[in-house]
Specification:
By secondary structure, this protein is α/β, with parallel strands linked by helices. The chain is built from twelve helices and twelve strands. It folds into three domains: 44 residues, lambda repressor-like DNA-binding domains (434 Repressor (Amino-terminal Domain)), CATH 1.10.260; 126 residues, 3-Layer(aba) Sandwich (Rossmann fold); 130 residues, Response regulator (Rossmann fold, 3-Layer(aba) Sandwich). The strands form two sheets. A six-stranded parallel β-sheet has the order 2-1-3-4-5-11, covered by helices on one side. It has a six-stranded mixed β-sheet with strand order 7-6-8-9-10-12, with helices on both faces. α8 packs parallel to α9 and α10 packs across α11. The radius of gyration is 25 Å and the shape is elongated.
């Protein structure tokens, strides 16, 4: 026999309160006394009542849903971002819908899915878009914040870190250690983070009278980076230092060099990454890296998105946050060092 569904009226009758009190109890922004809340929750547990959020959204015209779009969670940096964003939105009474987009290319099918989902806002984690795609998103009128990417379009809010300056420090610092064959292990070539970090890196080398010895692409992925490192260190003159555009690729480089080329880090090769994921500080890695302010990035991006959801005419903002060098054991030491960015 099919079990009869429990309604808010049943809960109200058992709790001895009005039906509107039950509705307010399950609305994150509504005010209700602690006594009423306790009665409603006890009655709900006894009856097995679950509020119908879909039905409520049809009444209130509010889905209480945020779309989070990314291309991969392989990088621990984005897993950490997703966790922090999830906790923030959950505390605001919002649900999350996850969407996965291709690293680059056709974004339109994903956008169609987002529009059909009736979300109130979109948080994009490291999604590469061109100007036309950004305008298409903007034209639908859904609040959007891009985090850890930039796009040449003023109509969408963007929160990122100073990739250019981080790359500049990495290039200048490796050159200051006395390295002569300094290579760059890039991410996704079309991404703003790859381009900005590479540009800054080359400028940092140039400031020390050097040029980039070699460039290969790891697509921000562990296995692709491993293949790229094998190519770089099979060159007639292999690098003696490497700047990887994220920590995941830097860790891949350390593994390949140690286990396949029998090279010591940093005695034979110095390595710098970018992000400062938790495992970068593990003693087995001790990776010198450029720290992105992930907590601040998520705080700014999520708060900005919520403001845009609440205020339709709020102008977009573009925020660039500072980065910090984290000196550890994957680079050579020097006695008189200037670590400032």
């Amino acid at each position: 026999m099919k079990r009869k569904s429990v309604t808010s009226r049943d809960v109200a009758r058992l709790a001895g309160v009005s039906q509107s009190a039950v509705s307010r109890t399950f609305s994150s922004n509504a005010r209700v006394s602690e006594t009423t809340r306790r009665k409603v929750m006890e009655a709900s547990r006894e009856l097995g009542y679950r509020p119908n959020t879909i039905a409520r959204s049809l009444i209130t015209r509010s889905s209480r849903t945020i779309a989070v779009v990314t291309y991969s969670l392989e990088n621990p940096f984005y897993s950490a971002m997703l966790e922090k964003a999830s906790r923030f939105f959950q505390a605001q009474g919002y649900h999350l819908l996850m969407f996965f987009a291709p690293p680059s290319g056709d974004f339109d099918p994903v956008l169609d899915d987002i529009i059909r989902s009736q979300v109130e806002g979109v948080l994009m984690l490291a999604i590469t878009m061109n100007r036309q795609q950004a305008k298409l998103v903007d034209d639908f009128g859904i609040p959007v914040v891009i985090i850890n990417r930039t796009v040449d379009y003023a109509g969408i809010s963007q929160v990122g870190s100073d990739n250019l300056q981080g790359g500049y420090w990495a290039g200048r610092y490796l050159a200051s250690l006395g390295h002569q064959q300094i290579a760059f292990l890039g991410g996704l070539p079309d991404s703003s983070t790859h381009q900005q970090r590479q540009t800054g890196f080359i400028q940092g080398l140039s400031s020390m009278g050097q040029v980039c010895a070699a460039i290969d692409i790891g697509n921000y992925r562990y296995e692709d980076a491993s293949q790229a490192v094998r190519r770089l260190f099979s060159l007639p003159t292999p690098p003696d230092a490497l700047f990887a555009a994220n920590d995941l690729m830097a860790l891949a480089a350390m593994d390949v060099l140690r286990h396949e080329f029998s090279l010591e880090v940093p005695d034979d090769v110095s390595i710098i990454g970018f992000d400062d994921v938790p495992m970068a500080a593990w003693p087995s890695h001790s990776l010198t890296t450029v720290k992105q302010p992930v907590d601040m990035m998520i705080q700014k991006a999520t708060e900005l998105l919520m403001k845009q959801v609440a205020q339709e005419d709020m102008p977009p903002e573009h925020l660039i946050l500072p980065v910090t060098p984290m000196l550890r054991g994957s680079t050579r030491r020097k006695t008189d060092q200037d670590n400032a960015i």
